[in-house]
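Researcher: We plan to redesign the surface later, but first we want a full-length starting point. Tokens attached.
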């Protein structure tokens, strides 16, 4: 045999090993072997790296898939799936392995998957809490200690909170994800859980400024979040029915506002939205937290279409670059749709890029370089998810030169909605609305 023949045989063996992914629970060693095997078999389509380590020292693996897997490419949005942040909620962990299997085996063969990966950089983290998973010795449909990390902390109560001071000590797993979010330009995300069957969306926490007195905590992009949640539930085999897991709890159309379901402090999806400029929803995939392995194949059939359709939503809305008079990118320029300012303004990345998820319609996009006059552009946004590219709208500031580009620090990790709460408790509701609008306007400017 020639050297080339040996290489070909090895690659075939790797591909066969990857293709042999079966429906069972993959523990740490098996999960690592599988991810490394995928990367070895598809080196130009994937990038495997660890974003950090758990308390017990296990790697937090992320497999990146796309035409340019190793680095961000201008115009190509970043998407992520994270599973198993509660170690005893296990279905998502296996669904993401099977999603990887589907993506790599379909690339170049299935036109939809091929276009999706050519135009999207997809990050997949099968487990955020490997210690909790390994600590769950006896699978159970309900609560076990494996929910928490090795330090006994609930990772979905461990992030900075936009509404109140979170006293929880930041865990290594949480810090790794926060750093990951900071270092990438994530646009859309979902975190996969178990124990219910519903798509839940931000805000998980709230106050009177966001409508908590009416039992609903509304974000400025509530319409987009409802659409995102419905995209998943309507493409799921049964989530859209909204029957929940018992007769006591129903979710119309299979979706819920997080706060309406139950109030949650320090959640990951709110953190993504406020500080990461990334729209994230929480997907509850199974009534049983840790179901028998022989049910995994059915779970995959139930979720497969929804997992793909949800990724496509990263191409909603509008994207573009903000540049100076010499065509150089302007980082930290504020770019937001008029009428929906964020409490922590959305800013361009180092390449001067912005991505705004918006439903089809007419919007005024406001680009602001601090110290200069804002630039407004009216855009008609179509549904471009099928074309795998959001509408492109660039901004050029002729009066801004490279020497005076804005370099603003990121938003502080303090409860950004606290001031709005203080104002609301001191004034009548009608005046409070005025205070809220004024505050948001000041933040926006």
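Model: Full-length starting sequence:
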């Amino acid at each position: 045999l020639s050297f080339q023949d040996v290489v070909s045989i090895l690659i075939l063996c790797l591909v066969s090993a990857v293709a042999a992914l079966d429906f069972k629970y993959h523990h740490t060693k098996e999960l690592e072997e599988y991810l490394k095997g995928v990367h070895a078999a598809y080196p130009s389509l994937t990038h495997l790296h660890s974003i950090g380590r758990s308390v017990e020292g296990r790697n937090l693996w992320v497999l990146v898939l796309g035409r340019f897997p190793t680095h961000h490419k201008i115009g190509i949005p970043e998407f992520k799936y994270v599973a198993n942040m509660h170690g005893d909620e296990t279905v998502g962990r296996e669904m993401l392995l099977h999603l990887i299997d589907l993506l790599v085996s379909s690339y170049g063969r299935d036109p939809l998957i091929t276009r999706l990966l050519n135009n999207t950089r997809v990050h997949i983290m099968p487990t955020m809490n490997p210690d909790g998973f390994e600590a769950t010795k006896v699978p159970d449909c309900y609560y076990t200690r494996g929910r928490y990390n090795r330090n006994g902390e609930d990772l979905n109560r461990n992030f900075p909170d936009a509404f109140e001071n979170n006293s929880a000590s930041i865990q290594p797993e949480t810090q790794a994800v926060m750093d990951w979010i900071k270092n990438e330009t994530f646009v859309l995300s979902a975190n996969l859980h178990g124990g219910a069957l519903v798509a839940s969306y931000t805000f998980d926490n709230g106050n009177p400024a966001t409508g908590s007195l009416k039992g609903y905590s509304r974000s400025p992009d509530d319409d987009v979040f409802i659409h995102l949640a419905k995209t998943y539930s309507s493409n799921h085999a049964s989530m859209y029915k909204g029957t929940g897991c018992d007769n006591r709890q129903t979710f119309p159309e299979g979706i819920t506002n997080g706060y309406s379901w139950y109030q949650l402090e320090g959640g990951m999806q709110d953190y993504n939205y406020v500080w990461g400029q990334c729209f994230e929803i929480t997907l509850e995939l199974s009534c049983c937290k840790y179901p028998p392995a022989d049910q995994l194949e059915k779970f995959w059939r139930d979720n497969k279409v929804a997992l793909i359709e949800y990724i496509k939503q990263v191409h909603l809305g509008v994207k573009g670059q903000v540049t100076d008079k010499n065509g150089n990118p302007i980082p930290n320029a504020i770019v937001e749709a008029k009428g929906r300012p964020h409490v922590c303004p959305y800013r361009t990345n180092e390449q001067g890029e912005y991505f705004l998820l918006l439903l089809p319609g007419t919007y005024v996009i406001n680009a602001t370089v601090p110290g200069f006059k804002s630039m407004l552009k009216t855009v008609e946004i179509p549904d471009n998810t099928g074309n795998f590219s959001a509408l492109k709208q660039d901004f050029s500031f002729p009066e801004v030169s490279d020497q005076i580009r804005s370099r603003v620090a990121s938003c502080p990790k303090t409860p950004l909605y606290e001031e709005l709460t203080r104002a609301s408790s001191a004034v009548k509701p009608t005046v409070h609305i005025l205070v809220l609008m004024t505050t948001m306007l000041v933040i926006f400017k």
